[in-house]
Amino acid sequence: MRIGELAEAAGTTTKTLRFYEDQGLLPPAERTPAGYRAYTPEAVTRLDFVHRGQAAGLTLAQIKQILDIRDHGQAPCGHVRDLLDARLADIDRQITDLLALRVNVAALRDAAADPEPDTCSADEVCRYL
Amino acid sequence: MRIGELAEAAGTTTKTLRFYEDQGLLPPAERTPAGYRAYTPEAVTRLDFVHRGQAAGLTLAQIKQILDIRDHGQAPCGHVRDLLDARLADIDRQITDLLALRVNVAALRDAAADPEPDTCSADEVCRYL
DNA sequence: CTTGACCTTCCCCTTCACTGGAAGGTCCAG
DNA sequence: CTGGACCTTCCAGTGAAGGGGAAGGTCAAG
């Protein structure tokens, strides 16, 4: 299949596929005599994996690490587990941060919802922030 | 005060201060005869406001909007309230998304924590992602 | 008089994941 | 044989918030 067909099958764009090849997420594609990239259906599977990794919040670099291990003939599950552990810790940290931020922003918003014209003057920076 | 002193007083760097001036967050500074920027203590207040805005998760562009309104002699509180409302909705959306993501990632991690060697082979993409 | 700390402008670099566009080659239908 | 759809490479830019460093001016102390 050509790059346009793969893009449609995988739900992405040709630009992105060339970018992925450039970044090492896809192996350099076989070429037709005319120089067109020719893909096997495996590529769709690989791209699905990439998309699942992205949906889990992994970066392309992390997904590439997993694929590199797999491409070297090893089972990447241990590494996947480690990455997911780290990702989980990261998500927990983000949630904690956002909950704390939410409290602060909600308090500021509530204060700003009932402004006292005298203190909320243009002469000074708005006191609600 | 010179730019280095202001940077120290505001807990930032001279690079950042010139960047802020460039972005319109700080008005173009007065200059000494030698061309050095000369600031009044007001600048510290303004930078504190910028930092509080950042701590609330506002972008520099949003903070600039508030400051522009204030600099035009109007009270920015109404706009601040609108920005904080939007920010709050955004935080809630992020938290919701992260909680959903957490469930998925935790499930993947738990699956990967107990791999079955036969199915977690190098011949196929790791089934835990 | 020189040294060192500070200041100036200028331009490029960073991360992340793409996206746009130009200039040119290939392939198939009409 | 021409038009349009597809493909190729390469270069450049996006957005956020600065950071790095060069080349040169200024100022106070020793």
TrEMBL record, chains A, B:
Entry keywords, A to Z: DNA-binding, Transcription, Transcription regulation
Query: Which Pfam families is this protein grouped with?
Result: MerR_1
Q: Where is the HTH merR-type domain?
A: 1-69
Q: Which PROSITE patterns match?
A: HTH_MERR_2 (PS50937)
Cited SMART domains: HTH_MERR
What molecular function does GO assign, one term? DNA binding
Superkingdom field:
Bacteria
Kindly give the InterPro entries that the UniProt entry links to this protein.
Answer: DNA-bd_dom_put_sf (IPR009061), MerR-type_HTH_dom (IPR000551), MerR_fam (IPR047057)
Put simply, this protein is called: Heavy metal-responsive transcriptional regulator
